[in-house]
Amino acid sequence: MTQTSPTTAVLRLAAFTDRSDGGNPAGVVLDASDYGAERMQAVAAELGYSESAFVTARDDGEYDIRFYSRAAEVAFCGHATIATAVALAERDGPGRRVFHTREGQVPVDTSERDGGLSATLTSVSPYVEAAPDELVRGALAALHWDAAELDDGLPPRVAYAGVRHLVLAARTRARLARLDYDFEPLKELMLAHELTTLQLVHRTGEHTFDARDPFAVGGVVEDPATGAAAAAFGAYLRELGLIAPPATITIHQGDDMGRPSVLTVDVGTAPEIRVTGRAVRFTPS
Fold it and tell me: pTM (2 decimals)?
């Protein structure tokens, strides 16, 4: 008798793209009411994506949502939130939905645009803080980057909009393109400083950036699109006076992985940051 995989009923969507072979894949379980932590972790590990989302409807019409990488639970995940909102919009129609994450409430608005579905998440209140010298030195060593390769106009900081990220800016696009880091040392450093990803960026224009996000703590070398980091980066730009709100920035990520992604970040005067992207269903090969 053939055994059924625990992931048989999982929806698969690629977020921050309109292509099934682009963006960041996520598994989505729209009814995880009978899933315990062990089962959620097992499903996420079998899928092997950066993260997967597990949703339980609440009596008040809102949703509890939990996120698991292939290695561990994650407090908040932007791309899986976008994917989940689009999956719910496909099933029940576009509109606003409120997700309750471990870090707080995240409203998401979905709408039909240009023949597809788009979702905009509103982050929890972000913060930006100094990056300790030992963290920056350790990250540069693990990345095999030299301090002279950093962009002085975008100084290192730790930024949060649901989870924490170390922002490091490469002076050149060529430096960003070369990503060959020491996995275990970077993972240990990230765990010690409670980081979810490194937000490695290169500024390509006044409001445009390329990004790469090592995600060693999730058991993943690199994330093709990182909505949580995009929100945190929007807060970073505002906090350092590098943009004048209201402003919209565009982040291109995943190109170096062959999974191009586009993240649109709206930065206003309110603390919260809005991140928009599309999501599409795909069938695993």
Answer: 0.96
